[in-house]
Each structure stands twice: as structure tokens, then as C-alpha cells.
Amino acid sequence: MICKMSIIKSNIKLGNIFFKYRTYIPILFIFPLLIISSIKPQLFFRTNNIWLALCFFVTCIGQCIRIFTLGYTPKGTSGRNTGRQLASSLNTKGIYSTVRHPLYLGNYLIWLGLLLFFYNIHAVIYITFCFYFYYHKIMLAEEDFLIKKFKSEYIDWASKVPTFLPNIFKYEKTKTKFNISKVLFREYLNITAIFISFTSMSVFSHHLTKKENFIYMNLNYVILFILSFFIFVRFFKKNKR
Questions:
Q1: How confident is the model over 98-108, as a mean pLDDT?
Q2: How confident is the model at residue 28 (pLDDT cuts 50, 70, 90)?
Q3: Nearest CA-CA partner of 16 in 141, 101, 100
Q4: 172 DSSP assignment
Q5: How far, rounded to the nearest angstrom, does the alpha carbon of residue 91 sit from its chain's CA centroid?
Q6: pLDDT per residue over 63-82, tens digit each?
Q7: Model pTM score
Q8: Three-state SS at 94
Q9: Are the CB atoms for 109 and 65 separated by under 8 Å?
């Protein structure tokens, strides 16, 4: 029992460290794939435009989950804070009535779409395992914090709601109104990063295989779109302050 408690505490401690650097850790997972695919390009990127569209669609689902989550959450929750856990209120309605960690589900699907672009099942299994390892620790740390802060209120809610895989039949409508400007200002960097990632992967795959896809064939227009989107939202954000 003491040994088990010690393991849980060490996992929570590790989870708090992962929480602090959660934005950058997934990038570390990608580097081995880039190296391996450079050495063995014949095992990767056997793709076409239909597959590219499917990969992008999976990533878009993940981003839409993030948008839906953030758009309906009140101030003081679901933040970008990295120094420590913060929560002034407990979300139990909307998407949080179907799953306890919707943002992490969204993050996984975003990265899954990018991984599918590699067209290698071993790459998907590898990254899924990595995500489980470090997100599991983060979720333990978050839930430990929330139990201490909200006590029985959190325990009662968590006992009815799945951790990671949503149960849409449990959905309860939230009274919070969707805040589109909040979502746009908070997520435009993430959306820009998605566009840049798919563009970079398209260029990288073409360099290795000489195969062209829609993004590579329209590279100048894609880059122009990314820059225009970023500049427009950045300008709008600064002028609204």
C-alpha cells in the first residue's frame, strides 16, 4: 500500500513537470520519426491528396474539440497557464459533461492527423504510447489538484464522466454563451501551427519521395494564406485591446 502511494505521488510530481512543458513535449516525439523517415523514406509518405485530406480532417476534428471546449468555458478554467495548476471554478456542463479532459483529447487528434501523414502504423502506435505515458501523468496531477480544491464536488462529477473517451449520451447543455473572439485570440497560434506543420510535412515528404500533393503544388498560395491569417488575427487582437 505504501509502495503504491509512493508511485502515485511520484507520477503526480512527474505530471506537474509535464504540465509545465506540455506545449513542447510532443515536438520531442516527432524528431525520431523525422530521422527514421529520412533514412528509410520507402517506409513512409506513400500518400495522395485523398489521404492528405483525411489526415487534415482528423486534425481539424481535434482543433474543433478545442474550439468547442474553450468557446464555452468561463474565465478561470481551461487556461494556457504553465507555471502551476489553476482553476477558479469546476466545469461540469457542455463538453465536460461527456469527458473530463476534452482539451487533451483534442490535442491527441491534432497530432494523430499529422502522424497519419507519415503513412506508417508503427509511427502511430509509437506516438500514441508516448502520448498516453505523459498525458496520463498530467491528468493524474490535474485530478489530484482538483480533488484537493473541489473535494466531493469533483469526485461526484468524475465518477460519472469518462476520463478521455467521450460519452455523447451524457451531454448536458451549458448556460455559457459561445465566445468566438476568445477562441480566435487564444487558438490562432495553434491553428497557424497546424497549417505550418502540414505545409512543412508536405515539403519534407516531397524532398524524400519526389511525390507532389495539393499543398506542395500550391505552396505559394498556402504560405500566403498562413501569413494573411496570422497577420489579420494578430492585428485584430491588438486593436481590440
A1: 93
A2: confident
A3: 141
A4: B
A5: 19
A6: 999 999 999 887 655 555 54
A7: 0.87
A8: strand
A9: yes
- Could you tell me the CA-to-CA distances from 98 to 39, 42, 66, 140, 205 in Å, in that order? 43, 41, 14, 18, 38
Contact of 118 with 37, CB cutoff 8 Å: yes
What is the CATH code for 10-177? 1.20.120.1630
- Domains of the chain, by residue range, sit at 10-177
All three cell numbers of 127: 506516438
Report whether 102 contacts 166 (CB < 8 A). yes
The neighbour count for residue 225, using CB atoms within 10 Å, is 13
Mapped onto helix, strand or coil, the DSSP state of residue 164 is coil
Measured between alpha carbons, how far is 202 from 15 in angstroms, rounded to an integer?
A: 33
Which pLDDT score, from 0 to 100, does residue 212 have? 86
Dihedral of the alpha carbons of 118, 121, 127, 128, in degrees to the nearest 10: 140
Spell out the residues 6+ positions from residue 172 whose beta carbon is closer than 8 angstroms to its own. 92, 93, 94, 97
Length of the chain in terms of residues written: 241
Q: What's the pLDDT score for residue 25?
A: 80
- CB of 94 closer than 8 Å to CB of 102: no
pLDDT at 16: 79
Residue-wise pLDDT for 108-144, tens only, equals: 999 999 999 999 998 899 889 888 888 888 888 888 8
- Average pLDDT in the chain: 85
